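In the design runs reported in the main text, the only information available to the sequence generator was the tokenized backbone. The following block is the verbatim input for one such run; it is reproduced so that readers can re-run the procedure and compare outputs position by position.
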């Protein structure tokens, strides 16, 4: 018999049969992702921290994982494209070695001219070898070849022959050289017209072009899929289908409470569902009560995320009628974009307070929140906007703060 922990799995990927996974229907994200894959485009799934990017990608390709053709690079942080190629070759049964090459003199003229066209060679090349046994005999062949550039088409041919699926996750943590090499690699991939080899890109960002250099060469290949916070129907699916599989009854009002306080974060929702389901599971009859949800919420805020809660409490103002620091943090949390401007903060704060707040009143408290004394919970990002001017954006230092403060705002009165 299923238990709550078999169904709800906060912090882990919902990939096993008993885990609840809600198809991502908001803005047809999942459908568009699958379509891009089937057309041989390179889907680039991006969106806020923890919205379910990895879960969606892994859920969709779990058949490939079962077939043993998935190469999942959980994070490209600190990795080079050579490391990624090495992983692909290992999946294909090759033993991989990297060796420093002394200049390009070791290459023949044909290889040299191919490389001149296809981007820079590496200082270290990958040497891949494989032992193959011809069936019915004992003859062993050693197949060996060398990969010397990010645009090696031999590697793509091998991946294509095996129908490999390559996931590159956490692209926002890639080194700049990696991003450049990746663009070259994708260009070569595009020219190879692969029918089976698939590449999937993922990263936390509110803008796709911060993850990959989408230049004209790869523009037509990349299919952006912006995964947004869970909407009500996605969240409802998790609650109702999950509880049903545990034979727990839940009335509409309680279901609505759960879906509204999770503030679009699938991880928070999974946590609250697990806690509440465990309380209801041992009850006769198995029926979820409002109190279970409130207890789950308290548990989450005060114990599970005690660190975030303490940081938040020590940063907000406890006195003063307008409590600007609190309004600013709420505006930062509820603004859909990761990068928030003063104008976003000003207009949301005005809504919360119910009167027009001038930005001069907010700039002091905003600056304070970027000081050590208040965490700092926020920090500046300067980046060029479309007009080429530098404008000032603010982000959370800890990206998990965003959904957490949304949760606090949505559950005011309970916590
Ligand atoms: N479609 C879904 N249905 C049910 N639960 C989900 C779904 N997607 C994600 N979750 C839950 O949310 C958690 C976070 O999801 P996931 O790690 O996939 O997000 P992410 O966007 O990749 O996060 P990060 O920005 O940290 O890479 C998962 O551990 C899982 O419990
Ligand atoms: Mg992820």
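Verbatim output:
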């Amino acid at each position: 018999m299923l238990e709550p922990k078999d169904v709800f799995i906060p912090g882990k990927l919902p990939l096993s049969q008993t885990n609840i996974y809600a198809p991502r229907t908001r803005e047809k994200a999942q459908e568009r992702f699958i379509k891009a894959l089937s057309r041989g485009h390179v889907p680039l799934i991006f969106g806020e921290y923890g919205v379910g990017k990895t879960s969606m990608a892994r859920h969709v390709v779990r058949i490939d994982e079962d077939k043993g053709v998935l190469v999942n690079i959980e994070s490209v942080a600190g990795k080079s494209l050579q490391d990624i190629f090495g992983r692909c070759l290992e999946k294909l049964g090759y033993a991989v070695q990297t060796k420093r090459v002394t200049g390009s003199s070791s290459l023949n003229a044909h290889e040299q001219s191919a490389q001149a066209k296809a981007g820079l060679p590496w200082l270290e090349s990958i040497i891949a070898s494989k032992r193959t046994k011809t069936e019915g005999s004992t003859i062993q062949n050693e197949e060996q070849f060398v990969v010397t550039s990010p645009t090696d088409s031999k590697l793509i041919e091998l991946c294509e022959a095996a129908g490999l699926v390559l996931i590159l996750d956490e692209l926002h943590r890639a080194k700049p050289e990696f991003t450049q090499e990746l663009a070259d690699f994708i260009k070569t991939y595009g020219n190879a017209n692969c029918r089976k080899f698939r590449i999937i890109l993922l990263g936390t960002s509110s803008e796709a072009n911060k993850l990959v250099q989408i230049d004209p060469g790869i523009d037509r290949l990349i299919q952006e899929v912006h995964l947004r916070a869970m909407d009500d129907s996605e969240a409802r699916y998790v609650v109702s289908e999950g509880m049903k599989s545990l034979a727990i009854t839940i009335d509409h009002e309680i279901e609505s409470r759960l879906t509204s306080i999770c503030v679009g974060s699938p991880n928070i929702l999974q946590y609250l569902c697990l806690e509440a389901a465990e309380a209801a599971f041992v009850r006769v009859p198995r029926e979820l009560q409002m109190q279970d949800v409130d207890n789950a919420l308290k548990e989450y805020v005060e114990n599970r995320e005690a660190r975030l809660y303490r940081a938040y409490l020590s940063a907000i103002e406890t006195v003063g009628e307008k409590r600007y620091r609190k309004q600013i943090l709420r505006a930062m949390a509820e603004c859909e974009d990761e990068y928030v401007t003063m104008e976003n903060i000003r207009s949301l704060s005005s809504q919360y307070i119910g009167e027009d707040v001038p930005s001069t009143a907010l700039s002091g408290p905003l600056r304070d929140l970027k000081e050590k004394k208040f965490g700092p919970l926020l920090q500046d990002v300067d980046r060029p906007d479309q007009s080429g001017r530098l404008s000032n954006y603010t982000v959370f230092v800890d990206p998990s703060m965003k959904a957490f403060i949304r949760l606090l705002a949505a559950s005011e009165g309970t916590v």
